[in-house]
Amino acid sequence: MKFIHTADNHLFKSFAASKLPPSVAQAYRKDMLSAFREIIAAAGKADILLISGDLTEMAESSAAGVKRVFDLIGSISDTAVFLSCGNHDYLSENNLYKSLSLPPNLCIFPPKLSSVYMEDINTRIWGFSWEKSRYGKLPFDFAKLNTEEINILCLHGDVSDNSPYMSIPPEALKAAGFDYVALGHVHKPGKIAESIYYAGSACALDFSETGPHGYITGVLTKQKGESGKAGYSFTNTDVPSFLSLEVDISGLESYDEIKQSLMGQIKNPDRDMVRVSFKGFRGEGIDIPSLCEELEEELYCLVCKDETSPDYNLEQLYRENKENIIGLFIKQYEGREDRASKAALYAGLDALLPRGKEGAL
Amino acid sequence: MKIMKLRMNSFGKFTDKTLEFTPGLNIVSGGNEAGKSTLHKFIGAMFFGMYKQGKKNKLSSEDYLKYFPWYGENYGGSLMMEAGGDPITIVRNFRKNSEKVSIINEASGEDITESFPYDPVAKLPDTSEILGINRYVFENTVSISQMSSATGQALAGEISEMIVNTSLTFTPGVSYRNALNTLSERREKIGTKTQSKTPRGKAEIRLNQLTEELKAAEQIKAENAERYAQIKKAQTELVKNDVRRRALGKKREMSLLAQYAAKYEKFKELTGTLNALQSEISAEIKINEQEYRRYLTCENMLSDAREEYDKLIMDRRIAGEQVASLAEKLEQLKSDKANGENSRADAAVFENAVAKLAEVKEQRRNDQQRGVLEEQYNKSERASRAFMFSFIGLILAAAVFVAIALIGGDKNFYTYSLIEALIGLPCAAGWIYFLTKAQNTRRLFDAVVKKSALEVAYREQIDAFLEKYEAADLRELNEIFDRAAGMEERISELNGQLAAAVQKEKSLMESSESVKAKTEHNSAIMASILRGASCGNSAELRAEYEKIRARDMAVAKHEATLQSAAALLGDMSEQQLQEKARQAQSMGIKPLEFDDYEKTLSEEERDIYEEATRINNQISSLNGAIESSSMKVREISEIAEDISSVKETIAALEEKYAALSDASESIMRVSADIKSDAAAKFNEYVSELLSGLTSGRYSRVFVGEDMEITVRDEQSGNMVALSELSGGTIDQCYFAVRFAVAQLIIPDKALPIFLDDCFVQYDEGRLFNILALLGKVAQSRQILLFTCRRTEQQLLDSLGVTYNLVNLGR
To answer: With an 8 Å Cβ cutoff, is A340 touching chain B?
Structure first.
């Protein structure tokens, strides 16, 4: 019996939090859909496709979008597809999964532990769909399994003893005796125990998700009276990578120097999605927004974060102007290290020092 | 900085006037109208030009015209000073359109104009840079005029600024007020969310638009979800409809089997019919079509020949009779020919009789009717007789009366007899009249009767001719006479006719013989055919022949039956049909022709089809609505991203705005602290000055924020408002404030202090004190003291203070 295990596809997700430029976000959503198409193509050659929750970002999905996904699933009519909804596509009252016609080969598990037996492959697939966005404890007990059958569990949740996202006790899960557990929720793919896997998010969903992303292909065989034999492999999906970088521009005096320092860290400028934090002190004439504009020309996607400070030598400035308005102004911000105070300090100095730098004094 | 030398080319009343100054105290002496104020203005104008400051357009100041040269064209001059250790000369032309400023380093001879900042409004180098103060500060601080100490709100602000900036350490170019303005401008550039034209306001508008767009997208999402739910429902209905369709299919299948069974039954029946027809077709027939046709032809010919023969015989007899008749007529004609003359005479008589008859008839037509005439005659006759008898009677009566008269002698009877005779006259006239009329009528009547007798005679004559010539009427008789006239031709004609008749009779004879022979021939053929068909007569032969018709019909029927059977089978073979029938039998389906049932099935089928169409239309319509509404909005995630992006912009703008506000507040706080701190120091300095000037009478001065001055009277120990003091003391006090400011401003530059007739109201004691102070100050700072009196010189001399005297003269 061959299966494909995917999870956390988060189709139609908004990348507002990641601050991706809208055009890039839009393109990446298409990439994510392409990745899902890739998974569907692979599943077309398998017996079953297991989707362990968060297939779509329900709040941000359109009905037409979900219909498109269902059409894709429907296109592999010989493969049985099982979906256990997660916290991002839980079966709420207005969940689109309920409104739309399901393709005949798609089974969405109800919000109670249920199973479907497929005689031709002697496999029983267990599943549970979320119907609210939070679960503390696992809301069911594992059933006693018929060991003559291949038993697979498809579930969205957090394998831990204490999580607000449905704690799945690790020991209980291991003891339940499933031949394979297809998990979703954790975006980093990984093995929890023998035959218990998180497929991870099918594509990276943020700059923090920098590792591999894809889906699991598994083959299970089980003879009567014997325990199952299994083989798994992981396939990466073909989508752009997220790259999170930091560049300290202290001492870098020109745009070229800064660019060089950044570009050296980027392998695929035409494909990578880069977030860069500029740090340190910026020299005279360095304007981070203009620098970012220039860089955007050279990169597929750039998210800039300006964490630099103007190159004021505050100590010297204070020392030299201890008794006049400048010194007294700087003193106002002594010990105030928060971002807002820093901004106010630099804004004030900018206004007070017409030529902008202490060197002019 | 010290002013060393100046030259006024043309300025006000001065022309080509050169004055030299020393670094310490300079007394510029001159009486009223000597030009002290003009000189003072010239110095200011050399630094600041003669146009209004703080304007966007260059406008000449009021002083431009005020000091326009009385003589000379060269409105300008030069000013040499010692600044920063270098001797520098400013050369300036004030004249409009020829304005020019040059700055020359006298030590190097270098033109250093370019090194000065450019004033884009005046389009000249900014020479105020040398002083480090603006015109306002120059005129109100370093330059102290007589009684011009009164301070306005603007001065208070400037002084406040000065206090802040001059406190402790002066920082060139630093202005807390400028900084506050800059921060305020920057805040304005960001704007607030209610200011729609600012970035912040625009972001707010965009955010609102996006929020609306998101709402719309969510609304459409909900509507489409509902539409999809309807589609789902419709699809369920479609499935149900499909179940119905399949059930109908099953029914139809059974119906078909039943029909096949029925067909098979019929097919079997047709096969039986075919077999029966086959035997009918193969039965022996003794006559064939051709022979029968030949027989019929012979029979028809025989019948025709017989008929013809009979007709020929008849014709032959008629022809014989005609020959005889013609021969007889010919004989008659021949005898008639002999009587030809008689006949001609008869014809003449006859024609005369006919003409006379016609004439009589014509006359008779004109005559009155015989009866009428007879009646008229009778009437006239009776009338004449009546008149005749009356006349005779009267005459007789008259004769009687005459007789009487004669006899009786009564003469009256003569009268009577006359009367009678007179009466008898008309009667005699009537008698004659009617007698004449009766005779005339009698004549007419007789003529009519005569004519009638003539007509009868003519008629009888004509009738005798008719009879004689056996003519039916006159016309015929005429014809006879006409014929008789052409007797020869007639005889010849008859001879011809007779010959033809004889020929025809002969021909008919031959024809009848020929027909007779043909009849016999046909009879022989017919007899032969009858023999061949073993038939005794035509009826038997016809019966035999009918068998052919029957067989043909059987063949046709056979053919039709075969076609029916083929139609029944359709595309199937007999075995297949049989198989279906067997299947139906095994399923217990009776062979039936389900016509009505079929109709029901068709109706149901149509119903199912229409239902499917309806549902599919509904689904397409819903899908269409989904598609069109989806096109109206962007994806929710896209809008969410835009919202997030705008919110981020707003956050950044607000953060910047907050930073600018925070910085402003800090600067204001710090400047307020400095002011209060500096004010104390300032007050201390002013107090020291005032104490020196008043020989300790007023030791404490307090200058408030609004520049209101109070002093402490050492004699009374009270704080006294300046306005309560004597004019001289007030002047001293203001001088102290102004001098303090002048002293404290830009101390490192040590600008010259201009004192313009400040001490006019001072008594000698006060003047002594102040000059002593100036003498001290002048050691480190250039002072230009403008005065119209000599007192100052005398006192300075007495104080032993050295000074440079610049005499402007009167």
So the answer is: yes
